[in-house]
Write a structure and sequence with these properties.
The complex is a heterodimer of chains A (about 300) and B (about 250). Chain A is α/β, with parallel strands linked by helices and about 300 residues long. Chain A has helices at about 40-45, 65-75, 90-100, 105-110, 130-140, 160-175, 185-190, 210-215, 235, 260-270, 285-295; strands at about 1-10, 15-20, 25-30, 55, 75, 145-150, 175-180, 195-200, 200-205, 220-225, 240-245, 250-255, 275-280. In chain A, helix 8 (about 210-215) crosses helix 11 (about 285-295). With about 250 residues, chain B is an all-alpha fold.
């Protein structure tokens, strides 16, 4: 779908070389640090920006040559895009519905997004969460086949974030392909079928959230306080252990597979008890930090 | 599939919404319509203004009517027209429009139509009110008057569109409009009737958009077809500033 996209602005900003494919009906995440080129990438996909080079096909269409067709079938929620302060919720949805050939029913959308009670409210009277939901509603008002959502839950409180996530899953269940730009790893982990990690305008990784977490060498982390000092070779010989370190009195072991079982077994054999044991499995967050760090220190 | 696939009624729905927005923040309407009408009422109560103006068949009160139309044009064209559009650009409303099948230029067109309607309302109230209550005579050369008013509107809107095109923020747009408003109204004769100005200032005034507008409307009210020069001056402003606005317009 996106092949060797390049769009640069001045010194090193923008997108250098990004390629990916999004499958129908999936939630596709684009993650990466600020200024990595995430927003530029989706702006090129929806035709708001003209790429310097590279090819983009959205539903078989060229976003530049087939602008009108793309706008009919791609709904976009842009980062930091407000509305006139004194426009009413119902008014703006009906107005935007009139722009499309086969729009969704504004009333149904307001019901689905919990905005029905706010129908006559001015935009400026809405809370952050309500503004965000209105923004999502506007991305969906044209009955799009693809919804591009940029910085979906930035600035929302935890409850509003969870509600929004449920909503996105609901949208996907209705058959809409979702492209989600985010820098929240928990969001990507929870929602996305696959994630694309972009950094400095290049693709760093493309995998499922779980796959990315594992492949980045995150593995499982284990922390414990040993009952008596012991020779660390007891653990380093284990095939499951990849790394061992000390954090004050605690021992920190990183590894893969059945790390917990192997470590406890080996310690018991050496006559050591592990106290205060904490287990953390690999998260996308770890993987993200590792991958981005790796890219910064070549 | 082309951009023209968007139904035309969608555009009029947008104009309607923009009209409602203008009514909900009525400051612009108050300054652009209510203030000129209040001034008309006040001027009607000043006995000295009932005297015929020197060298004219109009009373001094009647001479003020084109000036008050100029005041409305200033407020609407230089402030009411640019500020919402610059706000839309800054707040990302234009970007949001750009993601829909409707072109962002519709927003600009809707603003022009709504503000034109406001100017029209102001002119109708000033003239009709003056005739009904304050002994004003309808312009004796109505065609010339309409032509003058249209050209004046075109000139002032074109200047306002240059502000719209280039102002980086709504605050700067409002400031630019306000700063321009004073000299333009001065040369229109807002504070001193034009014939009281020094000849050099009168001469400069003839080449300002509102100086020319008042001259042309004044002639039409006296029953003459407006002289060519003020009409050309206004058309010149409309064309030159219109072209500059189109050339410099930023959509993001």
């Amino acid at each position: 779908m996106v092949d060797h996209l390049r769009k640069t602005y001045g010194a090193g900003a923008g997108v250098q070389d990004v390629s990916f494919r999004v499958d129908r009906g999936e939630i596709f995440g684009i993650i990466g640090p600020n200024g990595a080129g995430k927003t530029t990438t989706v702006e090129c996909v929806c035709g708001l920006r003209v790429p310097d080079s590279g090819a983009i096909r959205v539903l078989g269409l060229d976003p530049q040559a087939d602008r009108a067709a793309i706008r009919e079938c791609v709904g976009v929620q842009l980062q930091e895009s407000a509305l006139p302060l004194f426009i009413k919720v119902g008014e703006v949805l009906e107005l935007f519905a009139s722009f499309y050939r086969h729009p969704a029913d504004p009333n149904e959308l307001m019901d689905a997004l919990g905005l029905a009670a706010k129908r006559g409210a001015y935009f400026r009277r809405l809370s952050g969460g309500q503004k965000q939901r209105l923004s999502i509603a506007l991305a969906l008002i044209g009955n799009p086949q693809i919804a591009i959502l940029d910085e979906l839950t930035t600035g929302l409180d935890p409850q509003a974030r969870r509600d929004t996530w449920e909503l996105i899953e609901h949208i996907r269940d209705r058959g809409v392909t979702v492209i989600l730009v985010t820098h929240y790893m928990d969001e990507a982990e929870r929602l996305c079928d696959r994630v694309l990690l972009v950094d400095h305008g290049l693709v760093t990784a493309l995998d499922t959230p779980g796959g990315l977490a594992q492949s980045a060498g995150g593995g499982t982390h284990l922390r414990f306080v040993p009952s008596v000092p012991f020779d660390s070779r007891v653990l380093t010989v284990l095939p499951e252990v990849t790394e061992i370190g000390r954090e004050g009195r605690r021992i920190r072991v990183t590894g893969t597979g059945d790390l917990v079982g192997a470590v406890i077994g080996a310690l018991a054999a050496a006559g050591v008890q592990a106290r205060d044991m904490q287990v953390e499995s690999a998260t996308l967050d770890d993987a993200y930090v590792r991958l981005v760090k790796k890219a910064q220190q070549p | 599939m082309t951009a023209h696939a968007v139904p035309r009624r969608a555009f009029w729905q947008l104009v309607e919404v923009e009209g409602k927005l203008a009514l909900r923040v009525p400051m612009g309407l108050i300054l652009g319509v209510v203030v000129p009408v209040i001034l008309l009422v006040i001027f009607s109560a000043i006995p000295g203004l009932k005297q015929p103006a020197p060298g004219s068949t109009l009373t001094m009160f009647a001479q003020y009517v084109p000036v008050l139309i100029g005041l409305s044009l200033c407020v609407v064209g230089l402030i009411n027209l640019p500020v919402p559009m610059v706000t839309n650009r800054q707040m990302g409303v234009l970007r949001r429009f750009a993601t829909t099948p409707a072109p962002p230029s519709w927003l600009l067109a809707a603003q022009v139509i709504v503000n034109f309607a406001v100017v029209l309302i102001a002119i109708v109230i000033l003239l009709a009110g003056g005739v009904m209550f304050f002994g004003l005579h309808m312009p004796a050369q109505p065609g010339g008057f309409v032509l003058s008013a249209l050209l004046a509107t075109a000139a002032m809107f074109a200047i306002g569109l240059v502000i719209t095109a280039t102002a980086p923020s709504p605050q700067i747009a409002a400031l630019a409009g306000t700063i321009l408003l004073y000299p333009l109204l001065f040369f229109a004769g807002m504070w001193t009737p034009k014939q009281n100005l020094a000849p050099a200032l009168q001469h400069i005034g003839n080449y300002t958009p509102l100086g020319a507008a008042v001259q042309a409307m004044d002639a039409a009210m006296q029953g003459h077809f407006p002289p060519v020069r003020p009409l050309l001056v206004m058309a010149g402003y409309a064309v030159i500033f219109g072209v500059v606005a189109i050339r410099t317009f930023r959509w993001e």
